[in-house]
Amino acid sequence: MTESSPLEHTVSRAFGLIRQAEESLEQGDLALALSFLQEGLLDFCRLAESDPQAIRWQTQMAHCQLRIGTVLLRQGSSGALAQARFAASRQICVNLLAPGTASTGTRGWAAMHLGQLCDVMLTEGGDPEAALENCQLALDIWRSLAAEEQTDGYDAEVATNLIRVGIIRQMQSDLKGALERVREALVIRRKHAQAGSCRSEWQASLALAHAREGVVLDEMGDLEAALAAHRSALTILRELATAEPDNTDYLEALGFALKSIGDIAETAGTLHEALEHREQCVSIWRRLVATGRGDAALLGSLASTLEEIANLRYRLEDLPGALGSSQEAQLLWQQLVAEKPTRLECWEMLGASHARVGDLMEQLEDPAAALRCYQQSVTIWRDLVARERPTPQWQQCLALVQERLEELTWQLMSSPDSLSMPGTLH
């Protein structure tokens, strides 16, 4: 058995550290993941120094910097620390492109990485302006590649990055600019959906572009045009889901299209229509979750939509219906915190859910059940506030629910009927 060379040992160790980092992230151990990523980055830096012409090590360094920045944001560290990592990741891409003689493969990799960097910065709370710079550079690269060689793949990437730019423009309140970029993407996707290869994939992406157009138009206050855009998405997705009834992506997107129409109907004040579309949405998502085809994100979307349905039923004076939807949502939040115990936002939603169910129980004249819900809510908010970095929102929620708990406890203690109520305090 031959011994590995120092170089082979460094390569093996570096990739092993990255695998360990990913495993630690899955387990929710951010500190350990950060340590592994930093060690892996050092190894890739050594490898790049030993062979400056090897692009492979540069790309791994860029990946490590991106992941380190992501973990820092999730840890709640200074945003400046994370942004420095993202900037370092971007600079590696720029350096690889700088000579002007980069191969098509290197340019494509750089564009893909810049797009990923943009997505991370948007989803994890990075700087929108920096995200826009990354996305615009990626878009320029893809447009350049598409001009050199007409392929569906390059056009798809151009359209995807146009959508990304549109999303960032919308975040920056540049709604006109956002709409322009989204409609550029629509033109590309519509052309391929009508005549290109992989027609169903292009149709699905066209539906998503219509949905994004609807979101922007909704924010601009043009509800009629927004509704037309979402209905265009709905028509396409219904056709796709009918043709491929086992396609989870189509069914999930179909649910979102129905929900979006429900959202606009609520804004327009047509509550029964809003309720109808949201119930159609949750019916689809329930089937996906029941058959094990829904991930944690879909579970959260289902729970949130059930909370919205509960609110609509409440406004329509259907308190028992509102309670049923709230309780179903509560069970889903409980499932999520069991599966993702380190996701604090799930605990926040569960704490709020207990309080909402308690309020409905109280209005339906079941004070004992309401009391138990308030107690469970207070326990969750107390645990959150006891953490190292409690937010003002957690403290406010704790104070509000605790006040309601104390009021109800006093009412029950003062009531002569309280002695016959199961579950009350004595």
3D structure, described in words:
The protein is mostly helical. It has helices at 6-26, 30-50, 55-75, 79-97, 104-123, 128-148, 152-171, 175-195, 199-219, 223-243, 248-267, 271-290, 296-315, 319-339, 344-363, 367-385, 392-414. α14 packs antiparallel against α15. The longest helix is centred in the C-terminal third of the chain and has 23 residues, at 392-414. The protein is globular, with a radius of gyration of 26 Å. The model is unreliable at 419-426 (pLDDT under 50).
Q: Roughly what is the average pLDDT, rounded to an integer? A: 91
End-to-end distance = 76 Å
Task: State the shape.
Answer: globular
CATH topology (level 3) name of the domain at 318-426? Serine Threonine Protein Phosphatase 5, Tetratricopeptide repeat
| Helicity, as a percent range | over 70%
Integer-rounded radius of gyration = 26 Å
Sheet having the most strands: none
